[in-house]
Structure formats: C-alpha cells, structure tokens
Amino acid sequence: MRKIIGTAAATAAALVTVLPAAAPAAADSSSCTHHVSGPQVCIRLEGKNGWNNVVGIWTNPSKGTRHRAVQVTVNGRQYGGPVRATRVGGTISYRWSGWEQGTDAEICVRFARIDRVACEHTKYTGDRANF
Length: 131
Prior knowledge:
This protein is mainly beta. The chain has one helix at about 1-20; strands at about 30, 40-50, 50-60, 65-75, 75-90, 90-100, 105-110, 115-120.
C-alpha cells in the first residue's frame, strides 16, 4: 500500500511540474477589417499549424439581409467556389471544414458586393502536449 501511495504522489508531483509549462491546446486567431463605417468583415482560423477551419463573418449586415455569397482565398488563389453564408443571430457567417493550408499562408474571406476583405496568416505553433 505504501508503494502505491508513494507512486501516486510522485506522479502527481510530476504533473504539477509539467502542466504549468504546457502551452494552450489551440492556436486559434482572428482578424477584422477596421473601418469607422460600412460593412465589418472578419475571418477566424480555428486550429493549429496550418490545419484550420476557416470562418467568414459579416458582423453588421442590415436587418433584412438573410444570406450572402462568400469566398475564401489561400495566398491569393480561390479555394473552391463561392458558398452561401447565412444569418446566425446578428451576423452572417459561413464555416469551412478544416483542411491543410500550410504555415505562413495568407487566408482571406470576401463577401459578395462588399469591397472589404479580411485576412489572417497561418502560423506554426509547434507540437502541443494533450492532457
């Protein structure tokens, strides 16, 4: 019994030393256009190390707007075709399922009939321990 308690205590002490040093589990990032008036467009990357879900968000559509076409580009090249973003609460958004964009890639979203483009760069965040 003493051996089991000693082993459990040693394991707990090891975890206490390791956990504070562990980095967050994700490297999500976002970016928005910054204009005083007009449409506000945002992009959010959900993932890490160049493997992300991409979310395009129009944050301030008029109340009557229910949907709008949106497209995503990777390093200036269109990824797939335009898709239909729909209203979710007060915003219009679309979420592309995860795919590998690579690191140091520029990902941008653009909504139809809006001149503003929101972009974000993928980054390498390293391997993360899963606890």
